[in-house]
Amino acid sequence: MSPTVRTQVAIVGAGPAGLVLSHLLAAEGIASIIVDARSREDIEQTIRAGILEQGTVDLLATIPGSRVHSVGMRHDGIELRFEGAGHRIDFHRLVGRSVWLYPQHEALRDLLAARLADGQDIRFGTTATAIEGVDGTRPRVVATDAAGGVVDIEADFVVGADGSRSVVRHAISGPHAGLFREYPFGWFGILCEAAPSADELIYSNSPDGFALISQRSATVQRMYFQCDPDADPHAMSEREIWDELQRRVPGTELVEGPIFQRDVLRFRSFVARDLRAGRVAIVGDAAHTVPPTGAKGMNLAVADVVLLARALEALLKRADASLIDGWADAARARIWKAQHFSWWMTSMLHTVPGATDFDRARQLGELRTVVESEAGRTYLAEAYTGWPLG
Ligand code: DHB
Asked: Is this model's pTM higher than 0.90 or not?
């Protein structure tokens, strides 16, 4: 028998959701242990989206040593491009809010360094295999460490921040996963050494499909173009990739440079049926997936845990269960707004294989409706910069 370790909150997953939660709990004097199957190096090298909502940045900026303001770049708007013309959505003027370009792996480096400096117990290379006692008051995470030893963590509350193939979700809902939809396209993503092609991000709709011109720094750029979800990222030459990208942002000349990383991202929308059962909850990608257009993934994970931290503070420090009882509904309300926004940006900007002339003309009508209307631009700005957490 392995010894049982006891803590207040056992967190499965050291991604943004798990790390931000442990930070918020520690600030309330609530102890937690995090387990993650990956090594610290693997976590720090995860390549994900680069856009943070204002509320996410405000929270990350409170973490000691955070570089979000020094390395991150504030963006006050984006460009929507269609029919060869660009239309700026001026977030700052429309809603008085902005977003920050700060790649997720940089945020993870900051979070890991700060949590470890604070003495946080993080068990890397430790894979959760089962959650036991879901119906009781002392749920347990059973895990296997890198040496094959069993780790048994008993807690007042267990949180699954363990990504889209969540073990914790399975313990809550079994095979009844939730609501989802698939998309008939994905994104071909590249990182390249080049100067930025524009001051702000360009979301471009073209007859050949969507492209997103994003950035990483003064010398490294991130770009994506719509592709077959089964595309082989190594089947195209660099010349073919640049030609494809250039074709999809008509009216703009992209600055080209050596491509040093390429990947294909699949699209999915998903919301788990149950976000909580008793003293076990799921957050972030364990609870939901959004298609990447609009970069809501990490922001939604942070919103989940901000609400959850408040509910756990009430439950564990004041024996007040009212917030935890309402947590899933409160989280779900925001999750579905973000689901809608991500689906809407995706469907408005991508071309669907087999689309008719009617579909294409209607889509251009929709884009014009948004950019020519103050109300349309304002909705986009509100959703993109993120709804306040209240
Ligand atoms: C990035 C990704 C997105 O999905 C998005 O909408 C904006 C930016 C990025 O990786 O930079």
From this structure: yes
